Amino acid sequence: EAGVAQSPRYKIIEKRQSVAFWCNPISGHATLYWYQQILGQGPKLLIQFQNNGVVDDSQLPKDRFSAERLKGVDSTLKIQPAKLEDSAVYLCASSQLGNEQFFGPGTRLTVL
Amino acid sequence: AQSVTQLDSQVPVFEEAPVELRCNYSSSVSVYLFWYVQYPNQGLQLLLKYLSGSTLVESINGFEAEFNKSQTSFHLRKPSVHISDTAEYFCAVSDRDFNKFYFGSGTKLNVKP
């Protein structure tokens, strides 16, 4: 069974630029999560999708972050414009309803 | 909201020594408990989990964790560590519907030869 795929693995941008991350969950997993992991901290949930609907986006900075999962499969997380404090690893995870999460390798974002 | 506390940010230990990584959570309701491991430049991998039943759960690589409801703890232990166990370990809590996950800040285990 293939795992959660994410791309790119690394991204370096300057502040005020835009960036997008892509995630392809495990086949059949209805729930998809985006986490932000700042260096030295645990993952923080940004947004949770159930199929193509948003379940929880209470911690998503909506003035600059957006995410979509149009067909209920893969998902894109965008930051526009980026700030220095957005430097982090962005993790995508997926799960079947009522089961634990499986994580992708993450995208390491550096904002200069 | 629930919170997860991992008091030790770093734990240095010599190879073949025992280790305990501490995890405490705050919750007034029943929860599920997890330990994830993150090797350098990789995503999180599930190490073990407690859902119900026996309060002592084990992983395939020798780690174990014990759910202690009265102390709201889920400490991770290994009687003899290897160099390959060097990684960051995260404790996590979810509600019984797996709807929300809360992660601790992580403990870096550094196994020295």
Description:
The complex is a heterodimer of chains A (112) and B (113). Chain A has 112 residues and is an all-beta fold. Chain A is built from no helices and eleven strands. In chain A, strands 2, 4, 5, 6, 9, 10 and 11 form a seven-stranded mixed beta sheet that branches. A four-stranded antiparallel beta sheet of chain A has the order 1-3-8-7, with no helix packed on it. The N and C termini of chain A lie far apart (37 Å). Chain B is mostly beta strands and 113 residues long. Chain B is 0% helix and 54% strand. In chain B, the strands form three sheets. In chain B, strands 2, 5, 6, 10, 11 and 12 form a six-stranded mixed beta sheet that branches. Chain B has a four-stranded antiparallel beta sheet with strand order 3-9-8-7, with no helix packed on it. In chain B, strand 10 and strand 11 form a beta hairpin. Chain B starts with a strand and ends with a strand. Chains A and B meet through strand 5, strand 9 and strand 10 of A and strand 5, strand 6 and strand 10 of B.
List the helices and strands and how they pair.
The complex is a heterodimer of chains A (112) and B (113).
Chain A lengths: L4 E3 L2 E4 L5 E6 L6 E7 L6 E7 L2 E4 L8 E4 L6 E5 L8 E8 L6 E2 L3 E5 L1
Parallel strand pairs in A: 2-11
Antiparallel strand pairs in A: 1-3, 3-8, 4-5, 4-9, 5-6, 7-8, 9-10, 9-11
Chain B lengths: L2 E3 L4 E5 L4 E3 L2 E3 L4 E8 L5 E7 L5 E3 L5 E5 L4 E6 L8 E9 L5 E3 L3 E6 L1
Parallel strand pairs in B: 2-12
Antiparallel strand pairs in B: 1-4, 3-9, 5-6, 5-10, 7-8, 8-9, 10-11, 10-12
